[in-house]
Amino acid sequence: MAYSNDTGLPSVTNILSPWIDKQWFTAESCHRGTQVHEQVYSHLAHEFFACKPEYEVYYESFKKFEPRIRKVVLAEERLADHDLGFCGQPDIVFVDDEDSVLTLGDWKTSIAVAKYYQLQLGGYSILLKSQRNIKVEKLMLIRLRKEVDKNPLINIYSILDCERLFLNQLELYKLLKGEK
């Protein structure tokens, strides 16, 4: 599961980059996030991956959340919408065992909640509909924690609001890039 973009299209993250506070988006936080995503994906795919020992605590946090995952529908798949002009790689689409609802989840290893996370989920939701005909019913931010005794923190967002905000940002992105 490598993060690569050979679509020729900007990713959701590229489109949202003006809103990403670079002071918190460090090389270490990027490495941590990649390692933890790799570990979680490998676990879900029944493959082996060993992340750095200092990141194991986030994997343990994921394992506290895992009982909610009744069924994985999609995980870490690059999707591209050439008509709308963007791509992205949703972390997970699953049936939530708590309410039997089809859910788009995004793993984070940060306790802070950045405003752009909602737009990121909105972009992925749009891609899922247009490219896989998957209409999720819930958008969920899952903040994995380094405190082993604590459960992940969960935020739920409005699908319509998140999609609308992302599409507005996509239009602004295209305008500023001279594509409009």
Describe, in short, the structure shown:
This protein is of the alpha+beta class and 180 residues long. The protein is built from five helices and seven strands, in the order αααβββββαββα. It has helices spanning 12-16, 27-44, 56-65, 116-132, 159-176, and strands at 69-75, 79-81, 86-88, 92-96, 101-108, 138-143, 153-157.
Q: Percent range for helical residues?
A: 25-40%
Radius of gyration: 16 Å
What overall geometry do the principal axes of the alpha carbons give? Answer: globular
Question: Which sequence of strands runs across the widest sheet?
Answer: 1-4-5-6-7
What is the total tally of β strands? 7
Total of DSSP H or I helical runs spanning 4+ residues: 5
Structural class: alpha+beta
Query: Uncertain regions: pLDDT < 50 for 5+ in a row?
Result: none
List keywords for this structure.
180 residues, alpha+beta, Lambda Exonuclease, Chain A, two-stranded antiparallel sheet, 5 helices, 7 strands
If you had to describe this structure to a student in words, what would you say it looks like?
- The protein is an alpha+beta fold and 180 residues long.
- The chain has one domain (21-175): Lambda Exonuclease, Chain A (Alpha-Beta Complex), CATH 3.90.320.10.
- It is 38% helix and 21% strand.
- It is built from five helices and seven strands; from the N terminus they run αααβββββαββα.
- A five-stranded mixed sheet has the order 1-4-5-6-7.
- Strand 2 (79-81) and strand 3 form a beta hairpin.
- Helix 4 (116-132) packs across helix 5 (159-176).
- The longest helix is centred in the first third of the chain and has 18 residues, at 27-44.
- The mean pLDDT is 92.
